[in-house]
Write a structure and sequence with these properties.
mainly alpha, rod-shaped
Length: about 70
């Protein structure tokens, strides 16, 4: 036969659960922020590369016309 939990037992369990969940959320937010920084960095590099390619193609086209 199982022993019934008291209100104090449930309250104690909930406090432990809330502390664990809060730590998990902090960890997830930190990882998400790190990921967002990496994506922003890649976006910047890709935009710079695309700009370089477009300018190079324009220079080749203009030199071919003149």
């Amino acid at each position: 036969m199982s022993v019934r939990k008291t209100a104090n037992d449930v309250s104690s369990d909930l406090k432990i659960h809330e502390a664990q969940c809060a730590e998990r959320w902090r960890s997830m937010f930190k990882k998400t922020d790190d990921l967002q920084g990496s994506v922003q960095s890649m976006k910047t590099w890709l935009l710079a590369g695309l700009t370089t390619i477009i300018i190079s193609l324009m220079a080749i086209i203009i030199r071919g016309i003149v």
